């Protein structure tokens, strides 16, 4: 069975995830702690997916992530 957020872990319990609203409260990010900041998350996916984001786009994404984490819109 492919992994999903609701797939049971090896121990049989449901996986635990923090929602985006708690993003700023729970660094480091990724299972191994590979990203210390939301900006590092954006850098990771830009490189891994070859998105070719510009500096301003990366800043906008981080701001959007933090706004979503605080329950703000726009």
Give the topology.
Blueprint: H1 38-49, H2 55-69
Descriptive report:
The chain is mainly α. The chain is 36% helix and 0% strand. It contains two helices and no strands. Helix 1 crosses helix 2 (55-69). The model is unreliable at 7-15 (pLDDT under 50).
Choose one word for the global shape: flat
Cα-atom radius of gyration? 14 Å
Straight-line N-to-C gap:
37 Å
Question: Which runs of at least 5 residues are low in confidence (pLDDT < 50)?
Answer: 7-15
| Approximate helicity band | 25-40%
H and E string: HH
Quaternary structure annotation: single chain
Tell me the strand percentage band.
under 5%
Task: Report the major sheet.
Answer: none
Broad structural category: mainly alpha
* Total number of helices: 2
> What is the residue-averaged pLDDT?
75
Beta-strand segment tally? 0
Keyphrases for this structure?
mainly alpha; single chain; 74 residues; 36% helix
Task: Sum this structure up briefly.
The protein is mainly α. Helices cover 36% and strands 0% of the residues.
